[in-house]
Amino acid sequence: MSTSRKAPVIVVTGTPGTGKTTHAELLAQESPIPLKHINVGDLVKEKNLYEEYDEEWQSYTVDEDKLLDELEPLASEGGIILDWHTCDIFPERWADLVVVLRCNHTMLWDRLEKRGYPLKKIQENNEAEIMDVVIEEARSSYAPEIVVELQSEGTEDLESNVSRIVQWIEAWRKDRGLSDS
């Protein structure tokens, strides 16, 4: 972790449908310091950071080396929110906070159905949520004190989660002697 960064790198992760993008967008708006929201899935498409498109799963096979090369300068600078369904690809030194969003699996199923996901993809993601796949991935990839698990089942959760992360940002800056000027 770089001590020279003026702003943190926050990873917002979770099974598809848990509210990562909504959380990241609101956090970028409410943060006491400028944070750039990077939807990693969109970045992969925009910058062609993939090997192929998988028709059956309706998703891209990411070229991890290209993706990490693209993100490295942004991560060393800090001040970003990385929003993606997986987190263990990001080097440990990048992350100052890893937020894992969780959602009741029946609610998750409905959200993914509304997105028009194929049944196989809904089942796989639902199973991943039930089996704690993302939280286990986060816990095995980063120091336990930077991994936070938050429920994401409605507007109240969203607002309370974003407010908690804003407080964390303020504490992170204070710990480093950075003022809000």
UniProtKB/TrEMBL annotation:
Annotated residues for binding of ATP: 17, 19-22, 115
Enzyme class: transferase
Catalytic activity: ATP + H2O = ADP + phosphate + H(+); AMP + ATP = 2 ADP
GO cellular component, one term: cytoplasm
One Pfam assignment: AAA_18
Region spans: LID: 114-124
Chief location bin: cytoplasm
GO biological process, one term: ribosomal small subunit biogenesis
Keyword set includes GTP-binding: no
Enzyme Commission identifier(s): 2.7.4.3
InterPro entries cross-referenced by the UniProt entry: Adenyl_kinase_AK6 (IPR020618), P-loop_NTPase (IPR027417)
MF (Gene Ontology): AMP kinase activity; ATP binding; ATP hydrolysis activity
This protein's UniProt keywords: ATP-binding, Cytoplasm, Kinase, Nucleotide-binding, Nucleus, Ribosome biogenesis, rRNA processing, Transferase
Family statement drawn from the similarity comment of this UniProt entry: Belongs to the adenylate kinase family. AK6 subfamily.
Full protein name: Adenylate kinase isoenzyme 6 homolog
Origin species: Pycnoporus cinnabarinus
